[in-house]
Write a structure and sequence with these properties.
Layout (H helix, E strand, L loop, with lengths): L5 H5 L4 H6 L1 H10 L1 H22 L9 H13 L7 E2 L16 H11 L19 H11 L3 E5 L2 H13 L3 E5 L5 E2 L3 E2 H7 L3 E5 L7 H7 L4 E7 L15 H10 L4 E6 L17 H6 L4 E5 L10 E5 L1 H9 L1 H6 L3 H13 L3 H7 L1 H6 L3 H19 L3 E10 L11 E10 L7 H9 L5 E2 L1 E3 L2 E5 L6 H8 L2
Parallel strand pairs: 1-13, 3-6, 3-7, 7-8, 8-9
Antiparallel strand pairs: 2-10, 4-5, 9-10, 11-12, 12-15, 14-15
Helix pairs in contact: 3-4, 3-5, 6-15, 7-15, 18-20
The chain binds pyridoxal-5'-phosphate.
Subunit structure: Homodecamer; pentamer of dimers. Binds only one seryl-tRNA(Sec) per dimer.
Subcellular location: Cytoplasm
GO molecular function: L-seryl-tRNA(Sec) selenium transferase activity
Length: 463
């Protein structure tokens, strides 16, 4: 029996004919004959599949050259697209957490483009490992005796536990067995580090005597974990850092705190909710504290362990350190970020994370008001466009219950116009510079807290 779509198949252009066209030759010069031929073969295969499954040619059949050039442009695009983060979550893990300061960006580009003294001392004196210079800076900022830098805070906790307590017991309060988004769960990390977790106390109340009663000859570490993404309220009790440090001294056991985000500075001085600071615990006598580099610190993804020299030395020498160490780009970005903390009065302008967190709702409202009319004129036939108050989040598990007053431009569907906020959100996600908002109460919310340039936003939303 004759193939019913024979006439359609005959309309498909021959690849060798296409390859001879000048327009195609330009692409061959740019990206090579291999890529262009493969792309044309793929288009052929897709067109054939379309004919056999739907009995028709693909939409782009009218213009193969245009389709080829669209696919060619996509080749040059990065998988990591720049987006507008208008979700209202400042440290958005899925959007890469902290945005770097100008000085961190410059520092990274410097070390990328040239050999550097990563583990090389120009005066011939051996100073040990690659963390040395930045560890000194961390000590200056936190009062720690020494520091160790690894890939992220999860790695920091793993390395700390493996070094201090492998094959032994670690005592932690039941109320602090945290799970951070993704796969970080305190009991699982303990198991991976080869430690036995000893849970003490109850979910809502843990006392010093609970820790003390659990101490035996197998105990290697007393640990606290900052409950960064939840809070236990009501009839509660937790053991303070100072008490735990005291207990550790009494029994000659080391103490550690995973602070999660942590902050180098007092957040309340900037009108923000209090966040624990490493130097508070170190000065209380806690031996080791770990924090993230890309949460409130506002730097690159990294994990920082601060504490007593004796323990940091052991941690630096553990074989896992080699697997978890950071590269020169991370060290450069971290150094530049930390240097900003040496002049705290400039932090609020130079560190994007802190600049966005401290923007007043009034400033954000002014920003929203300045583009409202233009957006109404463009989207007003299908949507009710308004400026409305909202609450931003810090994100990344920092300060979970606290919200920051902010303003958003909201888009609500005009009844009967067949418009949906879901499809508007989807359309904006497909833009060359995608705009990411938040769907809530049947509206699409663009929280302008993290928007630096209203005109850049208008440019993409009005196209
Ligand atoms: C965020 C967090 C972690 C994990 O830190 P990463 O840098 O994301 O690996 C671990 N512990 C606590 C308490 C945290 O808040």
């Amino acid at each position: 029996m004759a193939e019913p779509n024979f006439a359609l198949y005959r309309q498909l252009p021959a690849i060798d004919k296409l390859l001879q066209l000048d327009e195609v030759q330009i692409l061959v010069e740019q990206s090579g004959i291999h890529w262009v031929t493969e792309c044309l073969r793929e288009m052929q295969a897709q067109a054939r599949a379309c004919i056999s499954q739907k009995g028709q040619l693909p939409e782009w059949h009218e213009n193969w050259l245009k389709e080829l050039s669209v696919r060619h442009s996509a080749l040059g695009e990065s998988a990591l697209k720049n987006v507008f983060n208008l979700t209202g979550t400042v440290l958005h893990t899925n959007l890469g957490r902290a945005v770097m300061s100008k000085s961190a960006i410059d520092a990274v580009s410097q070390v990328m483009s040239s050999p550097v003294t990563l583990e090389y001392s120009l005066d011939g004196a051996m100073r040990g490992h690659r963390d040395r210079a930045i560890a000194d800076l961390l000590c200056k900022l936190t009062g720690a005796e020494d520091a160790c830098i690894v890939n992220n805070n999860a790695a920091a906790v793993l390395l700390l536990l493996a070094t201090v307590a492998q094959g032994q017991q670690v005592i932690v309060s039941r109320g602090e067995l945290v799970e951070i988004g993704g796969a970080f769960r305190v009991p699982d990390v303990m198991a991976q580090a080869g430690c036995q977790l000893i849970e003490v106390g109850t979910t809502n109340r843990t006392h010093l005597r609970d820790y003390e009663n659990a101490i035996n000859e197998h105990t290697a570490l007393l640990m606290k974990v900052h409950t960064s993404n939840y809070s236990i309220e009501g009839f509660t009790a937790e053991v303070e850092g100072a008490e735990l440090a005291e207990l550790g001294k009494k029994h000659q056991l080391p103490t550690a705190i995973d602070l999660g985000s942590g902050s180098m500075i007092d957040m309340t001085a900037y009108g923000l909710p209090a966040e624990p600071m490493p130097h508070t615990y170190l000065s209380q006598g806690i031996d080791l504290v770990s924090i993230s580099g890309d949460k409130l610190l506002g730097g690159p993804q990294a994990g920082i362990i601060l504490g007593k020299k004796k323990w940091i030395d052991a941690i630096q020498k553990h074989p896992l350190k080699r697997a978890l160490r950071v590269d020169k780009m991370t060290l450069a970005a971290l150094e530049a970020t930390l240097k900003l903390y040496l002049t705290p009065e400039k932090l609020i302008t130079d560190l994007p994370t802190l600049r966005w967190l401290t923007r007043s709702s009034e400033t954000i409202k002014n920003s929203a008001d300045s583009i409202l009319v233009t957006l109404q004129a463009f989207y007003g036939d299908k949507f009710i466009v308004e400026v409305e108050p909202c609450l931003s989040q810090i994100g990344s598990g920092s300060l979970p219950i606290d919200r920051l007053p902010s303003f958003a431009i909201t888009f609500a569907p005009l009844d009967g116009k067949g418009s949906s906020v879901e499809s508007l959100a989807a359309k904006w996600r497909q833009l060359p510079h995608p705009v990411i908002g938040r769907l809530k109460d049947g509206k699409l919310w663009l929280d302008l807290r993290c928007l630096d340039d209203e005109h850049a936003l208008l440019q993409v939303l009005l196209s």
